[in-house]
Design brief:
CATH topology of the largest domain: Rossmann fold
Oligomer: single chain
GO biological process, one term: SRP-dependent cotranslational protein targeting to membrane
Protein name: Signal recognition particle protein
Strand content: 5-15%
Radius of gyration: 24 Å
GO molecular function, one term: GTP binding
CATH class of the largest domain: Alpha Beta
Strand order of the largest sheet: 3-2-4-1-5-6-7-8
Distance between the termini: 21 Å
Shape: flat
Structural class: alpha/beta
Number of helices: 19
InterPro entries: AAA+_ATPase, P-loop_NTPase, Signal_recog_part_SRP54_M_sf, Signal_recog_particl_SRP54_hlx, Signal_recog_particle_SRP54_M, SRP, SRP54, SRP54_GTPase_dom
Bound molecules: guanosine-5'-diphosphate
Number of domains: 3
EC number: 3.6.5.4
Length: 443
């Protein structure tokens, strides 16, 4: 899971702090020392770590902690706010040009995930009823044109290509004319990459930029490369003045330092995060939600958005209403499980839940189809009344349900517990919403 190590360490530190009724300046100092080490271990740039700790310390020893009834939680709140700030504060959205098409130029080193991210971005826009056009401007890497054409076919998105005999500047230019004629409102240009930054590459990118004046120049960087990703971003930004960064492979076993440093070092916001190889694994980057995920507060909002993507809008609205009114039943639970199945790797989905990283083994969890079938059988063995009022399911009913579904009573018990936990989580979420975030830090 993203930031697993960092999340574990920070949460250990804060758990110690939360247990104390009163905290002294020495407690805060000790906690911040541990936060500092955790950040360094997560491969965050050391200068950024120093600035970060100084800021939190300044605020912590000032008025904000003293006089507070829950000093431990106050420190967590401070760290959460500063982590959010470090990653850019608020979400940085993709520009929309007032005179379409909006031109997005994708740049980056070879292997960073540029072509895949171009496809993912086009897919993301298509889901929002946009009409993107993908452009194959990498004329050097042998299979690059083919790769983007295959992506286009899979996604049912048009790809503009002129083979490898024309210059990227000409191709980009012709693509924009094509988009204007065909009503494409976004043009996503997949440019060439190299293994290392070199002058010829930069000259070519500068020439394309000069010709098409893109609304966005997004640098695709691989989060697995840690501080190298930050250095690459710095170099590209110097030459091209980037408008944003797409950080890929955040689903891997990355320490996360790049995500936490890139904005602070370069000033470029992270606009999207790649969370897997599949073509729907691209998420808009929300600094506040990412900070909450790191601190184990979960990212319920992203989870819900992900769920909504997978289901039809009416169903989503109905579910939201049910959650708000705590009317969630076993029928909805079953429905949800089906949706989750469609959403992708379960570990990623569960990773967004508050406190999920405390559950052992969640990192490598796969959707266990057998387990899902068992749950389905149990729910289907319940009466309508039981599904809507699970509290009536007493011992004899449990026995009957187990027999009816070919499972053990312990399986039924486990499911009932899961369901209750899920309801509890929803309650927490709705109270956070109602309280406008006031209760966010009460874990
Ligand atoms: P390019 O050379 O920059 O165009 O890179 P590609 O788009 O060809 O991607 C290189 C490899 O990284 C491919 O195997 C992709 O499937 C993989 N990849 C890209 N983005 C992600 C991501 O977010 N997560 C994971 N796990 N793999 C990714």
């Amino acid at each position: 899971m993203v930031f697993q190590g960092l999340a574990d360490r920070l949460q250990q530190t804060f758990n110690k702090l939360k247990k104390k009724g009163k905290i002294t300046e020495a407690d805060v100092k000790e906690a911040l020392r541990e936060v500092r080490l955790a950040l360094l271990e997560a491969d965050v740039n050391f200068k950024i770590v120093k600035q970060f700790i100084d800021k939190v310390k300044d605020r912590a020893v000032g008025q904000e902690i003293l006089g507070s009834l829950t000093p431990g939680q106050q420190v967590i709140k401070l760290v959460n706010e500063e982590l959010t700030e470090l990653m850019g504060g608020t979400q940085s959205k993709l520009t929309i040009s007032s005179s379409p098409p909006t031109v997005v130029m994708m740049v980056g080193l070879q292997g960073a995930g540029k072509t895949t991210s171009s496809g993912k971005l086009a897919n993301y826009l298509k889901k929002q009823n946009r009409r993107p056009l993908l452009v194959a401007c990498d004329i050097y890497r042998p299979a690059a044109i083919k790769q983007i054409q295959v992506l286009g076919q899979q996604l049912d998105i048009p790809v503009f290509s002129m083979g490898d005999k024309n210059s990227p500047v000409n191709i980009a230019n012709a693509a924009i004319e094509h988009a204007k004629r065909h009503g494409n409102d976004y043009v996503i240009i997949d440019t060439a990459g190299r293994l290392h930054i070199d002058e010829a590459l930069m000259d070519e990118l500068i020439a394309v930029k000069g010709q098409v004046s893109p609304d966005e120049i997004l640098l695709v960087v691989d989060a697995m490369t840690g501080q190298d990703a930050v250095n690459v971003a710095e170099s590209f930004h110097k030459q091209l003045t980037l408008s944003g960064v797409v950080l890929t492979k955040l689903d891997g076993d990355t320490r996360g330092g790049a995500a936490l440093s890139v904005k602070a070092v370069t000033g470029c916001p992270i606009k999207f995060a790649g969370m897997g190889e599949k073509l729907d694994a691209l998420e808009p980057f929300h600094p506040d939600r990412m900070a909450s995920r790191i601190l184990g507060m979960g990212d319920v909002l992203s989870l819900i958005e992900k769920a909504q993507e997978g289901m039809d809008q009416d169903k989503a609205k109905e579910l939201e209403k049910k959650m708000r009114n705590a009317e969630f039943t076993f029928d909805d639970f079953l429905d949800q499980m089906e949706q989750v199945r469609k959403m992708g790797p379960l570990d990623q989905v569960l990773g967004m839940l508050p406190g999920a990283n405390k559950i052992k083994g969640i990192q490598n969890m796969q959707v266990d189809e057998k387990q899902l079938a068992r749950v389905e059988a149990i729910v289907k063995s319940m009466t309508k009344h039981e599904k809507q009022n699970p509290e009536v399911i007493n011992a004899s009913r449990r026995k009957r349900i187990a027999a009816g579904s070919g499972t053990q009573v312990s399986d039924v018990n486990r499911l009932l517990k899961q369901f209750t936990d899920m309801k509890k989580m929803m309650k927490q979420f709705t109270s956070v919403q109602k309280g406008k975030g006031k209760k966010k830090f009460k874990l």
